[in-house]
Amino acid sequence: MPVVTFAAEGRDNCVVVAGAPYVYATARGQGFVMRADCSHRGGPLHLADLAGDGLLLVCPWHERKTSLTRLRAQIPAVRTGNRVTAVLPDRPRAGGRPAPRAACPGAVRSGAVREHRPMSPGLSGRPGPRATA
């Protein structure tokens, strides 16, 4: 299991390990590291809307709902300033399809690749549209 440090916001805010993308998200005032793709069909979960009083993420592709409580518990991480250090799985989840591995100049020692992923307003920790019901 690689320990990877990457930017919490801005450039290089996503790290790809074993073909799986991860981002640092902030929802309801709490930060956490999560998979950036939906386990259902690989949709861009980092662009998900919040629903259920901000307790659920809604995949923009298929409207599949994912519990924020479950996501927060999956990956241990610590944020210091704009850097986050996380312990990530070194293989894709069972049944999950790995994302294509991009050649990026931000490669790090763990075999991870850094890249940028835009975040939805609900996951960026910045004010944006209100959560949907």
Can you summarize this structure?
The chain has 133 residues and is mostly beta strands. The protein has helices at residues 68-74, 121-124, and strands at residues 3-7, 14-17, 20-27, 30-35, 49-51, 56-58, 65-67, 77-80, 83-87, 113-115.
Which SSEs are present, and which pair or pack?
Elements: E1 3-7, E2 14-17, E3 20-27, E4 30-35, E5 49-51, E6 56-58, E7 65-67, H1 68-74, E8 77-80, E9 83-87, E10 113-115, H2 121-124
Antiparallel strand pairs: 1-9, 2-3, 2-10, 3-4, 5-6, 6-7, 8-9
Q: If strands are numbered along the chain, what order do they take across the biggest sheet? A: 4-3-2-10
Compute the CA-based radius of gyration.
14 Å
Tally the beta strands.
10
Strand content: 25-35%
Largest sheet: 4 strands, antiparallel
**Helix and strand element order:** EEEEEEEHEEEH
Sheet/helix structural class: mainly beta
Average pLDDT number: 81
Approximate shape: globular
If helices are DSSP runs of H or I spanning 4 or more residues, what is the number of helices?
A: 2
As a percent range, the share of helical residues equals: under 10%
Low-confidence residue ranges: 96-109, 129-133
Q: How many angstroms separate the termini?
A: 37 Å
What does this structure look like?
The protein is globular, with a radius of gyration of 14 Å. The longest helix is centred in the middle third of the chain and has 7 residues, at 68-74. It has a four-stranded antiparallel beta sheet. Strands 1-9-8 form a three-stranded antiparallel beta sheet, with no helix packed on it. A three-stranded antiparallel beta sheet has the order 5-6-7. It is built from two helices and ten strands. The N and C termini lie far apart (37 Å). The chain is 8% helix and 33% strand. The chain has helices at residues 68-74, 121-124, and strands spanning 3-7, 14-17, 20-27, 30-35, 49-51, 56-58, 65-67, 77-80, 83-87, 113-115. By secondary structure, it is mostly beta strands.
